[in-house]
Design a protein that fits this description.
41 strands; eight-stranded antiparallel β-sheet; 968 residues; 28% strand; alpha+beta; single chain
Length: 968
């Protein structure tokens, strides 16, 4: 092996070798820092895994030479040691290099006799960037590292990672236009930029607010970069010292600089293009650690209470500056929704991005999670919180401020095109699911925007948002069914924002409906967040919208721009109302740290992780519902041949369309590959297209022949859903029913796997041995399904919606009710939606709300209902027991029936808990029943005296325990 010392450097970018002196114990410098690699085997083995401090995670490259792994230490350090913890796939030949700027490199270690295992390598040199380059692999695989650890002097050259220039005053020699100000280069937003006029030279400079020990500069160029530039430092803004002269290459550059300065200037002397020069970001690093609040913006970085910071900022705002935070700028980049910054007051721009199932709008590098209906079918609020947290982390990694979701509207009719992206037909379940998901999203520092308030349950096609999209609903139904989920995510979930809907409610557009937005949500729920419009749902005028409760218009400012100022001057909208709107928006911006940190990524960032893919798989498995099983499941080692058919076996319906559509990264796992991988080489797995939503040419005879020859047949079927378009039917299309019937006739051990967004009819049900409803399961479809089929995961999903036997059984079977006619959508079914309808009309559903089978069985006993306490709350306890032979989970569901005179449905969900039990194990569950749980709406929430009934079981139709509760 050979070791190289760094030569003394005089040119910019080369680092001098520190003299040999006694050293303190080396500090670990690399853990948790930014890292990039030349390649990754797949998303499960990212570069970040090599510096996460976890020896159980690893980076793995593609199987080719050479490969690189490079870590940014955040500042320049003296280096003393590198530790490589190889997985079995190691490199026999590699070099380690260091660099001050990421451009010019010096070799500090080299070998052609690498041994693998853990290699502790002494090095000598310094730099901000350390790079491992492998030139010869020891195996046929790529190279793979559990950990890449860089050690050195943790105090020497401690250049801070904070951006001292962030939101500080900036000036420039010129600007291309007002759209590209100097302030855009120091706003921390990778989607805004400073652009100069097309002439040489050009400069931009930033005032750090006081003299600081400067140790580094980061320049993030747009395509119009400088091929030659200098970095200069000054303590007074008059006398300048050149700290670096650079031959620019564009992209992101890190010139090494050193000196004390209050002012830092980049002067571009030669443009690389015909255009002016343009910088996305101009960051400055110092060795004194902290970044002071920008001059003139004391509310930034302040430790004062949020309310005080908002008051201080608003006192400095002009009327024009106030309305600037109340509307979008109409741009579709960098995010689907964008507001303008107010740089003179250090108010950052906001980026809004779809959607309710993860990062959407065609962005790549994200995880395609299961659809929200799948999360709801888990009936597991802990898992829903994890689902939201994983999505929130990916929104944050893309630099998003506001995630446009979740959707919490009720499933009123299974034909609604957006059923897949919402949760349930019941307001209690929808509210609990929405609250858990929102708390997860917002735990990552991203604002959630719950949608769509309210009574939005029909797409209405081309009529969406027109006067024809007019919901006619009584006040009691609105308050008991369609508002509680929004009130719950406001009061319990503390959601930052809500989106108002396209539809009208009794002739009043939802975004102008003060009864819904102001009274029911803001006042009754005690909510301090802000209401934003859906794209184009703001109609009418600034007077109607502002007074109706809307706070932010999207995507532009047709009403809340100059029109709002004019409405105030005419006396149509009070200044107090405008101030309330501004206060609501700014409060959430401060609450979520938007003023105090740089944007955490860009739309191009890759944010999917192995942990998030695991979450996607866990939700898909836990949300799948076993609807029928005659004993064919779980599959065992005796199954030697499996015949697969149906289009969704190879091209599955993993997600719906519209704003909730999410791209998979990496490619999704289809059922064929998932089942083959789990079955192993000893099982013959065949596939025939058959018929399907995605396969229009049926091969039913081929599927039948394969089924006859196999031990087990599995048929895949689906229907697609999408925003803007409702379904005409819930029957499977394209001969899928014919395929299932024929295969089930040919093989009595036929399993049907459905991927639908809501309920579906099943004319072949009696012939099928098993039925699994997988919803839209996201990119881990095949792996999740295989784990269920083989019993690696015991099914525990429960239906969040009722499945009718036929459309005629729906509470909304009349065309006037769905999709509406004669400019009205009549909600004449009133309170009787979903299971409430089937119970009140004594109609047997195909499968009831809350239903789902397991590979084990459960029993219920010992129901006790305590009387109401002094606060009016009663307590319900019961025991649930796993009476089968497998470990599994059941969802204990609590329903309440009110006295007949109250005019309520027979019973309504008021509590649920998912319980995991081993065979023979019992557990007591407990539920509070508050006065609100027992109340009905009669202009206000009222709890009448009388005899109430408490029911407990594991579906709306399986409630073996019941008891009376007397309310006095």
């Amino acid at each position: 092996m050979r070791r190289f010392a760094l030569g003394a450097a005089v040119a910019v970018g080369l680092l001098a070798v520190p003299p040999l002196t006694a050293q303190a114990a080396p500090a670990l410098l690399s853990q948790g820092h930014a890292v990039i690699a030349s390649s990754t085997e797949n998303a499960a083995f990212p570069a970040s895994a090599a510096v996460d401090g976890d020896p159980g995670t690893r980076w793995s490259s593609l199987a080719a030479d050479p490969q690189t792994l490079q870590v940014d230490l955040g500042s320049s350090h003296s280096l003393s040691q590198v530790v490589l913890q190889w997985e079995a796939a190691y490199a026999t030949a590699f070099t380690i290099q260091a660099s001050a700027d990421g451009g010019q490199w010096s070799t500090v270690y080299s070998t052609t006799t690498g041994t693998g295992g853990t290699q502790t390598l002494p090095v000598s040199g310094s730099g901000r960037y350390v790079r491992l380059t492998t030139t010869h692999r020891a195996t046929q695989w790529g190279v793979s590292l559990w950990e890449f650890q860089v050690f050195g002097d943790g105090s020497a050259q401690a250049c801070g990672s904070a951006d001292a220039a962030l939101r500080q005053p900036a000036t420039a020699s010129s600007v291309q236009s007002d759209a590209f100000p100097a302030s855009a280069a120091v706003d921390g937003d990778g989607g805004t930029r400073w652009s100069s006029l097309a002439a040489d030279p050009q400069w931009i400079q930033v005032d750090l607010g006081g003299s600081r020990p400067v140790c580094g500069v980061d320049l993030t160029w747009e395509a119009a970069y400088a091929s030659a530039y200098t970095i200069q430092l000054s303590t007074d803004g008059t006398s300048w010292t050149t700290a670096a002269t650079v031959a620019g290459t564009g992209g992101t550059e890190h010139p090494a600089v050193s000196g004390t300065a209050r002012y830092v200037r980049m002067t571009a002397t030669v443009r690389a293009t015909q255009w002016g020069v343009s910088l996305w970001e101009f960051a400055v690093h110092t060795t004194d650690g902290t970044t002071p609040p920008p001059t003139g913006c004391p509310w930034v970085g302040s430790t004062a209470p949020v309310a005080d910071r908002v008051t201080q900022l608003m006192a400095a705002m002009t009327a024009q500056q106030k309305i600037k935070v109340l509307h979008g700028n109409g741009a579709t980049g960098p995010y689907i929704g964008n507001t303008d910054a107010v740089p003179e007051l250090c108010i950052p721009a906001l980026g809004l991005q779809d959607g309710p199932a993860g990062v959407g709008d065609g962005l790549d590098g994200v995880t395609q999670f299961p659809a929200p209906v799948s999360a709801a079918a888990t009936w597991d609020t802990g898992l829903m919180n994890r689902y939201g947290s994983a999505m929130g982390a990916e929104f944050a990694g893309k630099g998003v401020d506001i995630a446009l979701g979740p959707t919490i509207n009720l499933v009123r009719d299974p034909r609604w095109g957006r059923n897949f992206e919402t949760y349930a037909e019941d307001p209690y379940l929808a509210g609990a699911a929405g609250t858990a998901t929102i708390q997860g999203i917002q735990s990552q520092g991203v604002m959630a925007q719950a949608k769509h308030a309210a009574a939005y349950n029909v797409e209405a096609g081309a009529s969406r948002g027109t006067p024809s999209d007019n919901v006619i609903i009584d006040d009691r139904t609105l308050h008991e069914l369609y508002l509680p989920a929004f009130q719950q995510v406001a009061s319990q979930g503390q959601v930052a924002s809500m989106m108002c809907a396209y539809n009208q409610i009794n002739g009043v557009p939802a975004c102008q409906n003060s009864g819904v937005l102001t009274t029911a949500i803001k006042q009754d729920a005690g909510w301090g967040g802000f209401v934003g419009s859906d794209w184009g749902s703001a109609t009418g005028g600034p007077r109607q919208l502002a007074n109706g409760g809307l706070d932010m218009e999207m995507p532009g400012g047709a009403f809340f721009g100059q029109g709002l100022l004019d409405a105030v001057s005419r006396g149509e909208v009070t200044q107090a109302r405008v101030d309330d709107m501004v206060r609501r928006v700014l409060t959430q911006m401060f609450r979520f740290g938007v003023f105090d940190r740089a944007r955490r990524g860009t739309p191009a960032s890759v944010v999917t992780t192995a942990a998030n893919v695991t979450t996607a798989r866990d939700v898909a498995a836990a949300g799948s519902v076993l609807l029928k099983n005659t004993g064919v499941l779980p599959l065992t080692a005796s199954t030697k041949s499996i015949a697969l058919s149906g289009g969704d076996g190879i091209d599955p319906q993993n997600i719906g369309g519209g704003s909730a559509k999410v791209n998979p990264s990496p490619a999704s796992v289809n059922p064929i590959n998932g089942i083959k991988a789990r079955a192993g080489s000893g099982v013959m797995v065949s596939y025939v297209d058959g018929a399907g939503e995605h396969v229009q040419t049926p091969n039913i005879p081929g599927a039948v022949a394969a089924a006859k020859a196999a031990d087990v047949a599995i048929v895949f079927a689906s229907y697609g859903e999408s925003e803007t378009q409702d379904l005409d039917t819930i029957d499977l299309q394209n001969q899928q029913n014919d395929l299932i019937d024929a295969v089930a006739t040919a093989n009595p051990r036929t399993i049907v796997v459905l991927n639908t967004g809501s309920a579906v009819t099943m004319p072949w049900l009696a012939k099928a041995a098993a039925v699994v409803e997988g919803w839209y399961p996201g990119q881990e479809n095949g792996n999740a399904l295989a784990s269920l089929l083989y019993g690696d995961v015991n099914p525990s999903g429960k239906l969040p919606v009722s499945f009718p036997k036929q459309l005629a059984d729906l509470p909304t079977a009349n065309v006037q009710q769905f999709p509406g006619a004669n400019d009205r959508i009549e909600y004449s079914e009133g309170l009787n939606v979903g299971y409430r309808w089937y119970d009140s009309r004594n109609i047997e559903p195909l499968f009831p709300f809350g239903f789902g089978l397991s590979y084990t069985t459960f029993g219920f006993s010992n129901l006790v209902v305590s009387p109401q306490g002094t606060n009016g709350t009663a307590t319900v306890t019961a025991t649930v027991t796993n009476t089968g032979s497998r470990a599994g989970a059941d969802v204990v569901q609590l329903y309440v029936g009110q006295p007949t005179g109250n005019g309520e449905p027979p019973k309504q969900l008021k509590g649920f808990k998912k319980v995991q039990l081993n065979p023979g194990q019992s557990q007591q569950v407990s539920f509070p029943l508050t006065p609100r749980d027992l109340a009905h709406w009669s202009g206000s929430w009222t709890t009448n005296a009388g005899q109430y009934r408490v029911y407990l079981g594991d579906s709306s139709r399986n409630v073996p325990l019941s008891a009376a509760l007397t309310v006095s």
